[in-house]
Design brief:
The structure is a homotrimer of 264-residue chains. Chain A is α/β, with parallel strands linked by helices and 264 residues long. Chain A has eleven helices and nine strands. Chain A has a nine-stranded mixed β-sheet with strand order 2-1-3-4-5-6-7-8-9, with helices on both faces. Chain A starts with a helix and ends with a strand. Chains A and B meet through helix 5 and helix 10 of A and helix 2, strand 2 and helix 10 of B.
Chain lengths: 264, 264, 264
């Protein structure tokens, strides 16, 4: 397996893919700015009246259930169906999976509509989706990403997709293949929307790299390396949030390749 | 009456309570980041399909009517009913009370569902809720917090709750008891979401301190002291917003106790 | 034609008009902070139950279709109808016009409800509204603002309103009159919500300046000059976003007049 950090980021920057997000209210602004900073073009649209048209002009669809409600779920399903028909990659972010039965039911329904390219969540969420009886504390993980390995593998087999488990070490799985990305700093867990941005950026890479394992690994490394670089500028969460967007924008493809710590 | 600034903040940090917010679109990101920075764990969920489950795993519920609509009000009512059944503290933020009849009707309905632990608003909002015929200018106060004292006292008696009136001096009332917190700087009124964050942080303290008068005073002092510390770093609103989140994170319990200016 | 940069900004600051926004989820926080920073008082409210009451106490209404859905469109229509009855200026921001048929249909419906004072968009959006068969890439323009001149003129005649086309040079049109504002820097396109804030600030100026051509030109210059000043402090998008809010707050009326580069 080969991972193309440098060429993927170069390609993302030159093609500036449109990423269609149906995401939660809390992170919309940060997600849009993160996508712009990495070089993609974000759009948010959720109404059933337009999601099919929007996803048709997009390079990828990112579905995030952070603040879900039935009318939004309708839009998610319709967008996913259309994306699948058109062969556009879908990223699912199962925010808060395991926190309430409703979230779990919705996830189940979404995964019946279409198979995602990538599922990206924290360990609690991934373990919950795989049927572990773990209790997610709201939207925060109560488990280590490495604890989520077998759950990730099970999900990957079940839905024939890449599963990316964020944590101190990001664990990315496709079938029996596993990649570990050991980038990032603890401060990344102290601001909201980091995971959601990781999913959105995975969508941006999936829009330009048809090998979604490669795309998911690049996204994890991009987040982690940018977090480390931002951490050199800021050690408190408000200023870190800003430094992180700056780091995404300033990140050079060669630097991403050089600073990523990947083991397979 | 005793106020436990140092031990309350220490306790908040060590228990990291889950605070369930049903709040407005404008401030969700800032509120979530403020809760993380002070040491709590935020979650936003509003759908009737899941609010009861979410509030069941939370330490407190914060209801904010800033961008309300009927379907959100349904979620607020259901969450409040469940919180009351489970004995979880509820904080109400009456954003824009008095600005439109709809807001006033909704507030009335919410308060019939369950008695809050704390109502936190600006003077216009509190005076409007208490029946003064004051006109709120959108969501900004047109009155001094100290003008709101008698209104706060009336509300406190009516709903058997703590009422916290934010302003140059924060006035916190429980029945006939009154506490004044003279912290904070004018720049705090120049960014959106400060009041909403004050309510969310009151929820975080109420989750760990069953004496809600103590909790409300600690929240007011936390906001004010952090605002003052942030004001030493930034004198314009964009950078102040960031410095404020940094200050919340960096605030030490002993520092809170030392810098708070409380009179009773 | 005369443009009153200095007196308009002075008047905006002294009267602090309430600007009622029905806008998209992505930009609400930034828009509210931008309005506060320039000296206006923002309020967000979208429910049909209260938009008429809210717009009745506001100085201007700003309608932005960035994340539209039917229930929000109902609120937009009702608010616009009431604003028109009361003679309050309406600003329309046609975010993503041309990206989906739904957006185009909604825009058509909104413009049948009431004639706006100002339509402010990027060139793709304005050209799409005028019937050019241009494809908007999500919410980003694929055309130069100067390419939008004839489309802007057509729209201005059709709806008897001012049309402001944002870009490297902002082109503002009223009938056969044209003004060009050559302020701003490319970094302004690298964060989300800049266009939306431009529309909101146009609403703030329209609330205090009944000559909407003057108001739209002042808004464009305010954005561009503040962007240039912020660019002296920050060269990456995260920190630029913050520096921009700081610059709006710090902008002096005389400075606006001095630094604006207007040609007519």
């Amino acid at each position: 397996m080969e991972f193309n950090f440098e060429s993927n980021l170069t390609s993302l920057r030159s093609s500036a893919p449109l990423v269609h997000n149906i995401t939660n209210f809390v992170v919309m602004n940060f997600t849009a700015n993160a996508l712009l900073a990495i070089g993609a073009s974000p759009v948010m649209a959720h109404a059933v009246q337009e999601v099919e048209d929007m996803v048709s002009i997009a390079g990828a669809l990112v579905v995030n259930i952070g603040t879900l409600s039935p009318v939004w779920v309708d839009g998610m399903k319709l967008a996913m169906k259309k994306a699948a028909e058109l062969g556009k990659p879908i990223v699912i972010d199962p925010v808060g999976a395991g926190a309430t039965p409703y979230r779990d039911q919705v996830l189940q329904q979404l995964l019946e509509v279409a198979s995602p390219a990538i599922i990206r969540g924290n360990a609690s969420e991934i373990m919950s989706m795989a049927g572990s009886h773990i209790r997610t504390k709201g939207v925060d993980s109560t488990a280590l990403s490495t604890d989520g390995l077998s759950a990730a593998r099970a999900l990957s087999h079940q839905y024939d997709c890449v599963v990316s488990v964020s944590g101190a070490t990001d664990v990315i799985v496709r079938g029996n293949e596993t990649a570990y990305v050991k980038n990032g700093i603890p401060l990344m867990t102290r601001i909201t929307g980091m995971g959601c941005s990781a999913s959105a950026i995975a969508g941006a890479f999936a829009a330009i790299q048809p090998d979604f394992f490669d795309a998911a690994v690049c996204a994890a490394a991009t987040m982690g390396v940018s977090g480390e670089l931002a951490g050199q500028r800021a050690d408190l969460p408000g200023s870190f949030q800003i430094a992180f967007l700056d780091a995404l924008e300033a990140l050079k493809p060669a630097q991403l390749a050089e600073l990523s710590r990947l083991t397979i």
